[in-house]
Amino acid sequence: MATLPDILRHPAAASESTGPQPRALPANLDAEAAFLGAVMIDNRVLEELAVPLRADHFFEPLHGRIFDRINLQIDKQMVVTPVTLKPFFEADPAMAELGGTSYLARLTADGQGLLAPRELAQQIYDLALLRELVSVGRELVEGALDTSEAVEPMLQIESAEAALFKVAEGATGQNEAESFRGATGKALSMIEMAINSGGHVSGKTTGLTSINEKVGGLHDSDLIILAGRPGMGKSSLATNIAFNCADRWLRDKRDGIEKSVGAPVALFSLEMSSDQLATRILAEQAGISSEALRMGKISRDDFQQLSYASQRLAELPLYIDDTPALSVAALRTRARRLKRRHDIGLIVLDYLQLMQGSQRSQDNRVNEISEISRGLKTLAKELQVPVIALSQLSRAVEQREDKRPMLSDLRESGSIEQDADMVWFIFREDYYVASREPKMPVGDGDMKGHEAHAAWQAEMERVYGLAELIVAKQRHGATGKVRLRFEPKITRFSDLAEGEYAGGGGYD
Are residues 144 and 251 in the same domain? Predict the structure, then answer.
């Protein structure tokens, strides 16, 4: 067996050949053997790895199986040695070709791997990524050369970028079925997070207790559709949630809390510019009217308060992309980049109908919206983050006496409802009551006019500043309503004060 310096300096080819043959894939079998030997000598080596090493990172399948069995035994809190592993490999054909289970003992014979186990693990991991890059490149070349069906270079670029993103994230692109053991581990971790948060949040927080209690937070890989008619405040609510989630992550980071229910957030605004969104958030945090900010109608004290808010939010992990008319492919590209650079945990899109589909779907708006909603759900699953996508509602809402939205009001495509894990509607009754204001009578003689205006004023006082979040669809739980407080001057949604009605109730 080669010495350790040789192992580290010379990642040997997987096989040797004479003559002009294709180059072999990059691998270092001696490094794999030395690392496995180090782990069997000292099981604590696995606790100090700087890379997420997996069985499929080993070039030699037998080495991968040995590594997998080592992890299973350690998970059971058992000591792993060549002797304890022997029963699991007595019938292994590859082991038999190497002289039987004595190969396990030979791996630990010189103990060279203990000199640099972290470096060996890093090299095994890096070579696995290089092999995956070779695979991606080969598929890219083959796809580019194949013009038998269609010539669509942009689709091939998108596919190649997705594959490269998986490599960058350390995934091998195998996409094999996950064991139930792995799935239950994730489920228990999510439940533990919910317990630690006080029993309300098992995903990312919305920053609003009443919503968290209803839906349990924003769950990874979920697509949440937030819909409403113009003027209802859906952009304001989405911005509030994005800010709350990012702010919670920043506060938890400063307090040394590792498992935060917050996360860095990517906000894709196809309607508003980044400076408009920043103004809205600053106004909310400083408690100053956003209209007054835009027009400069603020005092010196207000400006100082605004300056303090700006300094406090300088490190906020909220990344705003205001590129107009994004396609699904472009959105995925930008989201992957933000995931890689900033590890975003929530994506907010404002709004779905302003996105563009592929050239194939643009001749049919329903097909285009269907493609966009499927693409957003795929993005949520690929990046393992919740995606909140805002959506317009059809004008059918305005024709009904009860203006509360229903699932059938989702505009242009039923696939939005189908692809979404949750559908939320935002409804503010005071918006419609305000539009029904009767004209104030000029003289005192028109008593009916005075009575009508007084009745309207009483109704307006009853509903002013109240909003309903209607959870019309939820895969994880029950539907229902959540009542919120809305402050239109600073565009902020908040929980109702204790004593005010904030119940759920069924969804009709």
Answer: no
